[in-house]
């Protein structure tokens, strides 16, 4: 099967190699000419036989919108666009409706696997019509891990990115729990071998996970994480997950707290804690640090 793939960065470039290894033809486009197979979107479209399937792996937001709009002007009736970036789910249905007027199909696909996906496979969460899913299934099969797991047709357009949003919210909470447990071990006078404690959980433990494996790997290289700064960005999907929790009145204690902790990591001197210190001084005469 042929696939056009736009965006050949850390994820897209590895995806191209995994799909090719499965025997499919991939025509890749990137603004970096050193890694691109073609020099323009027009050339990419020209190299694909109709009906075409084109997958975008570019940053969410205006770049994705402009890329899809440009493709829509170049593609033909019966072609299909898959957005595999971290777009907000609310963007998907308007895109699908826009493309439908031109006879072009649309699917959204949440992709998880990071830089390890090329060797381990990617978890794919797809939203779209069943006929479109069937058309692209050889590519999904090439990308997913072998076996029964790693793929879901989650529902209509928007369901793929919605599922990936929730996935990333859960990821926030799991990472925060690992981080807090590690910090408590480091603070304790009882435990002398904190990296060894983390390593002991990798087999036979109910907290066994790939994230735990990756954390252990990080500690192997830097046992006290002294080379890192305690600062963590958020991609936006954690915020969208919490927004949805408010909209649907679903309690998301852990995920919300993990998101707010990331905000806290960006404050070298927390204004809120200054206020808490001032209040403690006022009502109890507690000492404050100047």
Concise description?
This protein has 290 residues and is of the alpha/beta class.
User: What is the first-to-last residue Cα distance?
Assistant: 66 Å
Helix content: 40-55%
Query: If strands are numbered along the chain, what order do they take across the biggest sheet?
Result: 2-1-3-4-5-6-7
The pLDDT mean sits at 94
Radius of gyration: 23 Å
SSE string, helix = H, strand = E? EHEHEHEHEHEHEHHHHHH
Our count of helices gives: 12
Strand segment count: 7
Fraction in beta strands: 5-15%
The global form is elongated
Q: Sheet bearing the most strands, described?
A: 7 strands, mixed
Class based on secondary structure composition and strand pairing: alpha/beta
Which spans have pLDDT < 50 for at least 5 consecutive residues? none
Give the oligomer, counting copies of the same chain as homo and different chains as hetero.
Answer: single chain
Describe this structure in words.
50% of the residues lie in helices and 12% in strands. It is an alpha/beta fold and 290 residues long. The protein is built from twelve helices and seven strands. It has a seven-stranded mixed beta sheet with strand order 2-1-3-4-5-6-7, with helices on both faces.
């Amino acid at each position: 099967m042929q696939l056009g793939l736009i965006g050949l960065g850390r994820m897209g470039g590895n995806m191209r190699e995994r799909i090719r290894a499965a025997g499919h033809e991939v025509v890749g486009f990137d603004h970096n000419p050193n890694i691109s197979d073609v020099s323009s979107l027009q050339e990419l479209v020209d190299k694909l036989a109709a009906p075409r399937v084109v997958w975008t792996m570019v940053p969410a937001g205006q770049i994705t919108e402009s890329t899809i709009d440009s493709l829509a002007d170049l593609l033909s009736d019966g072609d299909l666009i898959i957005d595999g970036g971290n777009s907000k789910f609310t963007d998907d249905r308007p895109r699908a409706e826009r493309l439908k007027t031109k006879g072009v199909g649309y699917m959204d696909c949440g992709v998880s696997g990071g830089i390890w996906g090329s060797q381990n496979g990617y978890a794919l969460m797809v939203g779209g019509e069943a006929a479109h899913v069937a058309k692209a299934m050889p590519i999904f099969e090439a990308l997913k891990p072998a076996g029964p797991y790693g793929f879901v047709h989650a529902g209509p357009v928007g369901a793929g990115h919605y599922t990936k949003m929730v996935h990333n919210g859960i990821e926030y909470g799991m990472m925060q729990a690992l981080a807090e447990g590690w910090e408590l071990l480091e603070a304790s006078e009882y435990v002398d071998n904190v990296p060894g404690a983390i390593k002991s959980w990798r087999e036979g433990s109910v907290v066994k996970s790939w994230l735990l494996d990756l954390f252990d790997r990080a500690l192997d290289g830097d046992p006290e994480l002294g080379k890192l700064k305690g600062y963590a960005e958020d991609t936006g999907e954690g915020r969208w997950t919490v927004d949805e929790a408010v909209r649907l009145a679903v309690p998301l204690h852990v995920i919300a707290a993990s998101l707010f902790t990331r905000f806290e990591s960006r404050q070298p001197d927390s204004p809120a804690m200054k206020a808490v210190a001032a209040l403690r001084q006022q009502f109890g005469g507690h000492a404050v640090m100047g």
